[in-house]
Amino acid sequence: xxxxxxxxxxxxxxxxxxxxxxxxxxxxxxxxxxxxxxxxxxxxxxxxxxxxxxxxxxxxxxxxxxxxxxxxxxxxxxxxxxxxxxxxxxxxxxx
Length: 95
Description:
Elements: E1 12-16, E2 22-23, E3 27-31, E4 34-38, E5 42-43, E6 53-57, E7 73-81, E8 86-94
Parallel strand pairs: 1-3
Antiparallel strand pairs: 2-5, 3-4, 4-6, 7-8
C-alpha cells in the first residue's frame, strides 16, 4: 500500500516574484498586490501567465483617503468647585 507524507503537502512561500528565480510547483509568490501559485516549473514567466501560474488571491481596492470626509464636533465642559478648588474637565466627541 502506498504511503503519503502529509507533511510534504504545503505551499512554499517565496516572497515577491523575481524573474530570475526558478520556481517549482506549489511555490507561492506575490505580484502586483496579488498572490499566485506555481502550477508548472517556471523561470522568467510572470505570474499572470496562466500556463505556469494560478491566482490564489486578488489585490483589494485601496481606499482613497483624500476623498474621505467627516465632520467632528468637540465639546469641552469645565466645572469648578470654588470651595474645594477642584477643577473637572469633561470632553465629548461627536462625529
